[in-house]
Amino acid sequence: MARKKPAKKKKSYSGSEDNKPNLFVAIYETETDDEGNNNDWRETTKDWRPRGIFTTRERAENYSSWCPDSLCCPFGIEDGELLFVIVVRYSTGHTFGCTTGEGTVAAATKVPEVAKKLRNLCAMAENFTVEIPEDIRNIVATPYGGDIHAHWLGYFERLESIHVFQFAVNKSPDGEYFFEEH
After folding, report:
1. How far apart are alpha carbons 95 and 25 in whole angstroms?
2. pTM, full prediction
3. How far is C-alpha 123 from the chain's CA centre?
4. pLDDT of residue 180
């Protein structure tokens, strides 16, 4: 009797159960200033978007033009799967000016329907905390592990847009997992 070959095991990245950051989002950010006619007023426009996701802060810093955002990811991810990252763009200000195009990584999931739900929850946020429903909490990664902090709500802050970026998980030759925009 011929022996069956064992099924090829998929490579996977396991999640964290201790609410410690374990995914780091490399950020691309450029900034332009328009000081206008009044020397006291300053207007800044940012181009802010995620560039890649890595499992080590050091690798993410190599690809970031700014400090990488971190996520506490409670679930595992298989090689080749997609990760949907919810990015909120907002404006902020102070007494002497404003900045448009500021951004934050609000959450991530590997389920497209959950990404849409998170996007809608962020869009409808009225409090500084966007509560993640209990039935999806174990499949959502957030910066602090748990609910989403709504940076775009505040005295000077205003929501501009919410985007869902797709990243595919890959494994580099050195064994580290990374996610490329898909």
Report:
1. 31
2. 0.81
3. 16
4. 75
